[in-house]
Structures are given as C-alpha cells and as structure tokens.
Design brief:
Vps9-like; endocytosis; Serum Albumin, Chain A, Domain 1
C-alpha cells in the first residue's frame, strides 16, 4: 500500500539525517506485522475494522442487558400492582419513560461528537418538555369537558336558530371569563348570574321558547359553562373556603358523641329498612363533592332529603313534618361529615341558576342544609338539653354519653353491635378506675409530703427545746510523784526479800 511506501521513505530520510527510527512504533498496535495508521489509533485497516466490530457488538450487548433489566423491572412492578388498572398504566409509562430517557441519552452522547451546538439545543428541548403539561393529565381532564360539549351541541340542535345564538353567547361568556381571572369570586359570580338572567330573558322574549324548554335549556347551559369553569371557581385560593371547610370538619369530629336522642331525631336505626335509608342518605350527601355542576350537587342534596323523609315515614308510620326533617338532616351531616361542605355550599350559592334556588324542592332542601350547618357551628349545651359541665366533658373526650345496656337490646340487633357496646362499657369502667387510681396516687403523694414536713418540724422543735451542749475534754490524771520535786533524795522503795527456810 501507498501508506507503507510512505513509511519506508520516511525511514530512509530519517536514517540519512542520522535519526534512529524504531520500527515497532510504525507497526500496528495489535502486532499483525502491518503498518498502523495514526488516524485509526495506531491500528491497520484490518485490525481497526475488527476493533470497531468488537466495540459495536459490546454496545449491542449492553443494550440487550439494559432492555432485559427494564423488562424485569416492568414485570415486577406489574405483578405488584396487578390489582388496579391505574397502577398497570403507571408502571408501563415508567417503563416507557426509562427506555426513552436511555435512548435519548445514547443518541445525545453520539451526536455531541459530531456537533458543538447539540448540547444547547438538547438543554432547550429538555426545558420545554419539562414545562409542557403531561398529555395524559390534559387528556384525563378534558374527557368530561369533551363529553359535555358534545351533549350540549346535540341538545342545541333541537332549538335550530336559537340554538346557534345560545352557543355563540356561551362561547362569548367563556372567553370573557377567561380574561377576568383577576376578578374576585363575588364579581365572577355576578357575571354568571347576569348571564343566566340575560339568556333566560332572550329565550322567553326574543326566541319565544316555552317555559318548560327554557328550564331545560338553562340546565344544559349551566352544565356546559360550569364544567369548563369548575377548576377556576370552585374553592379558589383567593377565598377562605378551604379554611371554613377545615373548621366545619373539625367541629363535626368533635361532636361525634351526639346521639339521635339528644337531637330528638324520630328515626329508629334498628329497623333494617330505616338503617338502609340512613346509609343511602349519608352516601348521597358525601357524593355531592364529586359533582362539578351546581344542579348535580343540588340533586344529591335532594336525594339525601328524600331518603330522610322515607326513614322518618317508616319509623313513625306517618308522613314526616318539617320539624322532624331538620333534626334528622343535622344528624345525617354529623354522622357523614361530608368533605368540603362549606366550599360546596358556597359554589352552589355563587354559580347555580337563581331560578332553581329560589323555587322548587331543590331550593327548599338546600336552605335546610344551610340551616343544619349553621346549627352545627353554633351547637352548645342548651341546644342538646345538657349541662355546661357535661357538654364540656363530652367535647374534650373525658367521657361519653351512657350507651344502651346490652341486656336491653332487641333480638334483631347483630352481635357486633352488642360486642361493641360491651367493649365501650368496659372502656368506660377502666377509665373510671384509672381516674380513681390517679386521684388516690395524688392524695398519697400529698400525704407523704405532709408527713415529711411534719417530721422535719418536730425534729427542729426538739433540737430547739433541748439544745446539744458539747463539754471540753477533761485532763488526764498525772502520776503521784510527778510534781514532788522537793523529795528527790528519798530512799528507794523497799524491795521484797526472800528467805530460805
């Protein structure tokens, strides 16, 4: 090859100049005996192709290992969340996201060797992708909106020319509301109420629509508009609706001890049919929060109220009166504790068709619900015919109202209720015993402190009355002749004598 000839010429020129050239530096790095090309990292063309194929096979093997690892993770996640379809879709989306991210990383890594500006473009694309909302979220949020829009268009086809004008008016109102997001919720409510009134007047005066068709049209208009505006006007951040919801919820939880007898509720839940009606009423009042249209929320309140009337009727064997309905509704609200109660009431008040709230049974039941919530917020001892001391003890959880004795239950009552009452009685007895033990312990502690103080005082009095006097030590007795200085010349004492004999 020409490259080898050039190498030989270069060697000859180097030798002529007296420069020693190591032939091993010119050969292929793999040791095949051919000359290497610096552009191919010192390999010859054949060895370079072999090294390239090896690197490519290694990359393919790593890709297969990555795919198998992602597949195992996907299968494990699928097995752990097989019970719910939502978890399956989430797992699959995570699997797809991992593969996409890994593929994007590899493509970016390859491209950055060929272009210098690819890094900036990639970062810009990633930022735009992060800011863009998730297609699945947008699709899920728009499913109901698209369905309502199609139903609204199909409904307006029956009105022919007035239907086209109604649709234009609704689109214009929605565009106007989108540009008035900065307005307060009260001002937005006034705009909605004015729009309802104007459309109703046009239906009656300009388009000469019969009253029964006007009411149906207004219901469909309200459904179409409020479905689109729900996320902007329900419990907005500019109001204190959420704070009121938490306050009402906390208040209802504190009143869990209130019994039907305290509220004079004429409902006997021991009757199976009555118990089913109570459960249905609670379900309806809780379901109100899941609706988006004010009319649908009112329908839930109406169904709840009708179940209450049926429960009272079955219990008393006579039609229920308004005096019986309101206490029972209060009891249902206390027992169900509906979520976001104040927000739902405010939403209905602000954006419901005024003609529906002012007239009809929906407006009557909604007014009673508002009265029930107001009563719960101001509930006190006098409202339940209790003393203030008992009311405070019940509110703080120190004690609870006396439950029905298990011996007085009817035979139809299930064993679970009887066992629950026995457990409550046992807990009440244990609570009284604990309070008694604590009281006796405090009394014993006081007695020990008083006894210690008494003993200390008696000791102090005795010490004060009979003080302890410590006398100095007496001097030791000296020898008889220790101070007899004058008789130093006395003869020595006599010694005993021993005689033989």
């Amino acid at each position: 090859p020409s490259f080898s000839l050039n190498r030989k010429k270069m060697n000859l020129k180097s030798e002529r100049r007296g420069i020693h050239v190591d032939q091993s530096e010119l050969l292929c790095k793999k040791g095949c005996g051919y000359y290497g090309n610096p552009a191919w990292q010192g390999f010859c063309s054949k060895c370079w192709r072999e090294e390239y194929h090896k690197a490519r096979q290694k990359q393919i093997q790593e890709d297969w290992e990555l795919a198998e690892r992602l597949q195992r993770e996907e299968e494990e996640a699928y097995a752990s969340s097989q019970s719910t379809q939502g978890a399956q879709s989430l797992t699959f989306s995570k699997f797809e996201e991992k593969k996409t991210n890994e593929k994007t990383r590899k493509v970016t890594t390859v491209k950055k060797f060929f272009t210098a500006s690819s890094r900036a473009g990639t970062k810009k694309a990633e930022i735009q992708e992060a800011k863009a909302p998730s297609p699945s979220i947008n699709r899920q949020a728009s499913i109901e909106t698209d369905r309502v829009s199609k139903e609204f268009i199909e409904f307006l086809k029956t009105y022919h020319k007035p239907g086209q004008d109604i649709y234009k008016q609704c689109k214009l109102f929605l565009d106007t509301m989108n540009h008035k997001r900065d307005l307060s919720i009260e001002e937005q409510s006034e705009c909605a109420q004015d729009f309802y009134q104007n459309v109703a007047d046009k239906l009656q005066t300009r388009w000469k629509v019969p009253p029964e068709k006007v009411e149906k049209a207004m219901d469909q208009i309200e459904k179409y508009i409020m479905t689109r505006q729900y996320k902007y006007v329900f419990c907005p951040e500019t109001t204190d609706d959420e704070k009121k919801d938490l306050a009402v919820q906390k208040r209802i939880r504190a009143l869990h001890w209130v019994t039907p007898q305290m509220l004079c509720v004429p409902v006997n839940e021991e009757i199976p049919e009555v118990s089913d009606m109570v459960v249905k009423a609670i379900t309806d009042i809780i379901e109100m929060d899941s609706k988006r249209v004010p009319r649908d929320k009112l329908a839930c309140i109406t169904k709840c109220s009708k179940h209450i009337f049926n429960a009272i009727k079955i219990t008393k064997n006579e039609p229920a009166s308004a005096d019986d309905f309101l206490p029972t509704l209060i009891y249902i609200v206390l027992k169900g504790n509906p979520p976001r109660l104040q927000s739902n009431i405010q939403y209905i008040t602000r954006f419901c068709n005024p003609s529906r709230l002012m007239t009809g049974e929906d407006g009557y039941y909604f007014t009673n619900l508002c009265c029930a919530v107001a009563f719960i917020e101001k509930l006190d001892a006098q409202s339940l015919n209790l003393s203030q001391e008992d009311f405070d003890r019940f509110m703080t959880g120190q004690t609870s109202p006396k439950k029905q004795e298990s011996d007085s239950f009817s035979p139809d009552v299930c064993l679970g209720v009887k066992q629950m009452c026995k457990s409550l009685d046992l807990l009440s007895q244990l609570n009284e015993r604990q309070e008694r033990i604590v009281s006796e312990a405090k009394k014993l502690e006081k007695d020990l402190i008083d006894w210690t103080d008494g003993i200390t005082k008696e000791v102090e009095d005795i010490v004060e009355k009979y003080p302890l006097e410590i006398k100095p030590k007496s001097q030791a007795l000296a020898a008889i002749d220790s101070e007899n200085v004058e008789n130093d010349k006395l003869p020595p004492p006599l010694q005993p004598q021993v005689y033989a004999g």
